[in-house]
């Protein structure tokens, strides 16, 4: 039995009414998040209002909180995009989700109707794809959050999960098995899906292959978990934080490289221990110099580099066009190539049956009002995911 078993909306019908609840509001870049009462309006057409039970902090939240990207500087704002909860009410036209369903919100939606959603070649969605510029709802260009005096509070990445209640487009809500443990399922909103999917869907890692992962945060370790499940024989983890290595061994990393301990470039070291380079490399650090090392660490002729890190810098790719004639390839990955609404329920099932181990990714747990402590744990590199519960 988890927290959801104690939640019922039957006795207090809040459908169609505004709800007052606690939220962590970002008032400015780098400022401590403020726990305050906010008003959450009812869902409009094709929207869903969720009661968030668990949420965690991702590096994308951290970057937005710092104000590292101009596109992410709408304030006041409710951040957060990794979470799990239960449906409180639905708006007009929502048919696939109902009150009481267990769900996870996703920042990268799937409308099912646009040109991209109708194509089997991509997981992009033209209407509800990730967009850091977006700070209001698609339906009417307004927010569903406000202060006590009615001033708007802006949305973030289609989700805004640092709030006890949130309103999201139905395209960004995934219904999962009612028996699924929601505290673990929250990880599928971003980090684990992004990493595992990069290994499975984007790179299509093959049994017996070699892999190098640059950056061993939650996403990088999820790549390792995905590569392990796929049967990769050599999984090399690259990070300057040696504390990440112990956790890496648990998820399948076989060798570790700390660039600060080398006298040669990382790609030369990897080339020496893999007979010319790995089959697949994954850049999870959001650093252009690291991206170049990841690219050069793959084997000429067939090496594939998957770009996962967020790069706020205006600098362009550190590659010369002629280097692509060596047969190496580079590709970006959004949400691990997963189509959220149609494919995440199956991923959740695989987690429930033990194919993937989610326990290793939750390193800390705190009550929601300790969110600034959780933020600092991530800043200090001491946590992968700190699970916050209401």
TrEMBL record:
<feature type="domain" description="Alcohol dehydrogenase-like N-terminal">
    <location>
        <begin position="46"/>
        <end position="177"/>
    </location>
</feature>
<dbReference type="Pfam" id="PF08240">
    <property type="entry name" value="ADH_N"/>
</dbReference>
<dbReference type="InterPro" id="IPR011032">
    <property type="entry name" value="GroES-like_sf"/>
</dbReference>
<protein>
    <recommendedName>
        <fullName>alcohol dehydrogenase</fullName>
        <ecNumber>1.1.1.1</ecNumber>
    </recommendedName>
</protein>
<dbReference type="InterPro" id="IPR013149">
    <property type="entry name" value="ADH-like_C"/>
</dbReference>
<keyword id="KW-0560">Oxidoreductase</keyword>
<dbReference type="Pfam" id="PF00107">
    <property type="entry name" value="ADH_zinc_N"/>
</dbReference>
<dbReference type="GO" id="GO:0004022">
    <property type="term" value="F:alcohol dehydrogenase (NAD+) activity"/>
</dbReference>
<dbReference type="GO" id="GO:0051903">
    <property type="term" value="F:S-(hydroxymethyl)glutathione dehydrogenase [NAD(P)+] activity"/>
</dbReference>
<dbReference type="GO" id="GO:0008270">
    <property type="term" value="F:zinc ion binding"/>
</dbReference>
<keyword id="KW-0479">Metal-binding</keyword>
<dbReference type="InterPro" id="IPR002328">
    <property type="entry name" value="ADH_Zn_CS"/>
</dbReference>
<dbReference type="GO" id="GO:0005829">
    <property type="term" value="C:cytosol"/>
</dbReference>
<feature type="domain" description="Alcohol dehydrogenase-like C-terminal">
    <location>
        <begin position="218"/>
        <end position="341"/>
    </location>
</feature>
<keyword id="KW-0520">NAD</keyword>
<dbReference type="InterPro" id="IPR036291">
    <property type="entry name" value="NAD(P)-bd_dom_sf"/>
</dbReference>
<dbReference type="InterPro" id="IPR013154">
    <property type="entry name" value="ADH-like_N"/>
</dbReference>
<keyword id="KW-0862">Zinc</keyword>
<dbReference type="GO" id="GO:0046294">
    <property type="term" value="P:formaldehyde catabolic process"/>
</dbReference>
<comment type="similarity">
    <text>Belongs to the zinc-containing alcohol dehydrogenase family. Class-III subfamily.</text>
</comment>
<comment type="subunit">
    <text>Homodimer.</text>
</comment>
């Amino acid at each position: 039995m988890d927290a959801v078993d104690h939640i019922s909306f039957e006795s207090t019908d809040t459908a169609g009414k505004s709800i007052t609840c606690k939220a962590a509001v970002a008032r400015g870049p780098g400022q401590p998040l403020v726990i305050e009462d906010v008003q959450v309006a009812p869902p409009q057409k094709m929207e869903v209002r969720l009661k968030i039970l668990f949420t965690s902090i991702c590096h994308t939240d951290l970057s937005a909180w710092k104000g590292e990207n101009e596109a992410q500087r709408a304030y006041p704002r409710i951040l957060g995009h990794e979470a799990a909860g239960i449906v409180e009410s639905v708006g007009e036209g929502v048919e696939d989700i109902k009150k009481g369903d267990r769900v996870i919100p996703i920042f990268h939606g799937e409308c099912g109707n646009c040109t991209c959603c109708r194509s089997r070649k991509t997981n992009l969605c033209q209407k509800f794809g990730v967009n850091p510029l977006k700070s209001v709802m698609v339906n009417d260009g307004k927010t569903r959050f406000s202060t006590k005096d009615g001033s708007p509070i802006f949305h973030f990445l289609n989700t805004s999960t640092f709030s006890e209640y949130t309103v999201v487009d139905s395209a960004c809500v995934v219904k999962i098995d009612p028996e699924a443990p929601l505290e673990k399922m929250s990880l599928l909103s971003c980090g684990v899906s992004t990493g595992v999917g990069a290994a499975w869907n984007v790179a299509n890692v093959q049994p017996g292959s070699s892999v190098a992962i640059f950056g061993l945060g939650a996403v990088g370790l999820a790549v390792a978990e995905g590569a392990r499940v796929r049967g990769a024989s050599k999984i090399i983890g690259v990070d300057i934080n040696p504390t990440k290595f112990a956790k890496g061994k648990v998820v399948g990393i076989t060798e570790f490289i700390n660039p600060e301990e080398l006298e040669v470039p990382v790609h030369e070291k990897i080339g020496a221990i893999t007979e010319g380079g790995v089959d697949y490399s994954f850049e999870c650090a959001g650093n252009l110099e690291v991206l170049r090392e990841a690219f050069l660490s793959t084997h000429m002729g067939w090496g594939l580099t998957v770009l996962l890190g967020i790069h706020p810098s205006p600098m362009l790719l550190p590659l010369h066009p002629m280097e692509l004639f060596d047969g190496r390839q580079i590709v970006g990955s959004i949400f691990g190539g997963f189509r959220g609404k149609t494919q995440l329920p199956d991923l959740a099932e695989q987690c429930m049956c033990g194919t993937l181990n989610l326990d290793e990714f939750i390193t800390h747990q705190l009550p929601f009002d300790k969110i600034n402590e959780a933020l600092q744990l991530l800043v200090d590199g001491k946590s992968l995911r700190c699970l916050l519960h209401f």
